[in-house]
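Protocol step 4 of 6.
Sequence for HECT-type E3 ubiquitin transferase (Gopherus agassizii) entered exactly as in the expression construct, tag removed. Do not edit the line below.
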Amino acid sequence: MVRDRQHGPVVELNRIQVKRSRSKGGLAGPDGTKSVFGQMCAKMSSFSPDSLLLPHRVWKVKFVGESVDDCGGGYSESIAEMCEELQNGLTPLLIVTPNGRDESGANRDCFLLNPAAKSLLHMNMFRFLGVLLGIAIRTGSPLSLNLAEPVWKQLAGMNLTIADLSEVDKDFIPGLMYIRDNEATSEEFEAMSLPFTVPNASGQDIQLSSKYTHITLDNRAEYVRLAINYRLHEFDEQVAAVREGMARVVPVPLLSLFTGYELETMVCGSPDIPLHLLKSVATYKGIEPTASLIQWFWEVMESFSNTERSLFLRFVWGRTRLPRTIADFRGRDFVIQVLDKYNPPDHFLPESYTCFFLLKLPRYSCKQVLEEKLKYAIHFCKSIDTDDYARIALTGEPAADDSSDDSDNEDADSFASDSTQDYLTGH
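Step 5 output, structure tokens:
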């Protein structure tokens, strides 16, 4: 661990160009190179080995056209953005499972490494994905990645089994068994005209042998063996590249001590967001923990779906998952600050400072208003910016005490200095 720096190199990322460059095929630029993930991957060559061994921020972000001063929130947002891009088609690295494509069986909402992504650029991207996984393990900051269980098994150094294939493609093995056990005569078999190919995980047909073009009664056992062998090893190149990237950040040989599920938990935390964990690190400024407003806030959070809780975390911290344990918060408190400068309070939205895990609430008059304003904020106020939108009353008038920004800047500055002091003293 390198502890003498608060962050690694400063990188400039352009989120505005991503939508502009999205092609008809869905990728952001050629092979997803214009995505935030692609931009970040291209900058990795300038990172020294030391900068990947930091305990917190491995880079500092400047978002082009967004006035972000990254004290941690911009960094978290860049990682959340990359996880989103990996799973929404902006990059070519992940594909939905065959079960997901067919809408049947388990792991429908999970992703596999794309076996068709084999170019030098793709391999470099897979290495960077490995770097991200390693950073998540080292810093305790979870990634929101929904990879299928067999992927985690391979990343932990385990071999796939036939049962793993069925987990992501429930029709594959029954199809092979039909061919192996079919009681048709040789003529009937040839009349079926089954090609000597197997669909890969992305649905493309792969020729298994230069010797045979079609499956016959005589070669069907060979076909079944080759088909299973292909599917058990079709991700090997991609897995090796990801592990190579992880090796830049964590000792990869030690991953064999863990099961696939344990590795997933180390990288991704829990997809469920346990409120008791969030409550245990909550502190309050300008209000008592027993006040009605605070009780309403936690009741609203209890009523949120897991997706809404994830959106709330993104709004207030730039992340979509909580760390695994209280220790992994690394001394960072979730601060709820209530201010009276919003007047009338029911006309204002909550504010957040993602760098400081800080939520500022107006003193809302009732639980219903709090729920309405909080839901609006988490769904529609996603960009990190010092643009003052949240400080404009919904009537269009500026906040009562906001003729100048000084008071608010003092709030942020004093909070920042407190946090910095805590960071330096190890609290």
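Step 6, annotate. Confidence is low (pLDDT under 50) at residues 386-427.
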